[in-house]
Amino acid sequence: MGLTRRLVFGANPRRTAVRVLVLASLSFVTFRWVLIPVRAEGISMLPTYDSGSLKFVNRLAYMSETPARGDIVAIKLAGPHVLYVKRIIALPGERISLSAGQVYINGMPLPEPYVRNKSAWDVPEVTLTTREYFVIGDNRGMRAKDHDFGRVDVSRIAGKVVF
Amino acid sequence: MTHRSVVRIVIAAALVGAAAVAVWRTREGADEKQVRARIEALRDEVNASTKDGLGTAARATQIGSYFTEDAVVDFGGGAVPIQGRVTLMGMAARLQPRTAAFRLELDDVGVEIVPDGNAADVLLTASFVRRIISTGDESRDAREFALVLAKADGIWRISRITAIDTLR
């Protein structure tokens, strides 16, 4: 009984209780406000992310820097519990278009090594405002009408997807 | 500072935190609770299959009861908005044999009651979860919607649903 009690509560139960509380508080803060766990559902980010894979969103990633081309970001809908996970391919102020599946930024083709299959998607050229990014999934083999992509306001970017 | 003091401080902080959460959870008003309950009930109605003995017409009528006579549902994407409760009920009846393959989930439901207390603005994320019979996998199509509800005779009904283009 004494050994079991010591194994569970430690030599100093009060100190153990403090440690548990501190650890629980740190975990709560970290996984609720800093590093949000998300489960990727759907095929729009294949082959980079499989459907069902667990990822983390770093909500502090863009506190000291702005989102960059190639970053995979989480995008808020009505709140933080359901997020789109997409890749940034065009930055504020740039012109973007897709022709036969090839992305063009300011008229120049964009190399995309993360894309395996390309269907012949066509998107007329648009110029992004100073607050807009253009995001898209890596799975371009699917039909464009089944794939959510487009311009997004910077305020909707919840963080950078990591791990 | 002794260990005993640290323990007291940590316990006090935890209690204050728990009390703050409790106060925050109970602060929402009665109208807000009613609106949330109404939206959740509509979700349950949509998800219910006809296994409970209700026929398609009865189910469609029940779904229609959540909307005002002149309700407008605009799914966007260039589709013509659905006008009126009767049209909605007709569509619900036609869709019903297929609803068992779908599940509607609602997340991040934000409710704001307008100052006169007879209308509410709601923002939510609706996910249509569909089971792919061949693989058993589920596919999820999440979209953001703005709802306007009106209160008449003490009952909240939806007068407008508008799909929001998160990505434009």
Structural summary, described in words:
The complex is a heterodimer of chains A (163) and B (168). With 163 residues, chain A is of the alpha+beta class. Chain A is built from 2 helices and 11 strands. In chain A, the strands form 2 sheets. In chain A, strands 1-2-11-3-4-9-10 form a 7-stranded antiparallel sheet. In chain A, strand 5 and strand 6 (102-105) form a beta hairpin. The longest helix of chain A has 22 residues, at 13-34. Chain A is elongated, with a radius of gyration of 21 Å. The mean pLDDT of chain A is 92. Chain B has a single domain, classed as Nuclear Transport Factor 2, Chain: A, CATH 3.10.450. Chain B has a 6-stranded mixed sheet. In chain B, helix 3 (56-64) crosses helix 4. Chain B is extended, with a radius of gyration of 21 Å. The interface between A and B is medium-sized, with 29 and 27 residues.
Short description:
The complex is a heterodimer of chains A (163) and B (168). With 163 residues, chain A is an alpha+beta fold. In chain A, 18% of the residues lie in helices and 33% in strands.
Number of helices of chain B: 4
Mean pLDDT of chain A: 92
Quaternary status: heterodimer
Indicate the proportion of strand residues of chain B: 35-45%
Percent helix of chain B, as a range, is 25-40%
What is the number of domains of chain B? 1
CATH topology of chain B: Nuclear Transport Factor 2, Chain: A
List the helices and strands and how they pair.
The complex is a heterodimer of chains A (163) and B (168).
Chain A: H1 2-9, H2 13-34, E1 35-39, E2 54-58, E3 72-76, E4 83-90, E5 95-99, E6 102-105, E7 108-109, E8 123-127, E9 132-136, E10 150-153, E11 157-162
Antiparallel strand pairs in A: 1-2, 2-11, 3-4, 3-11, 4-9, 5-6, 5-8, 6-7, 9-10
Chain B: H1 3-26, H2 30-47, H3 56-64, E1 67-74, E2 82-83, H4 85-99, E3 102-113, E4 119-131, E5 138-152, E6 155-164
Helix pairs in contact in B: 3-4
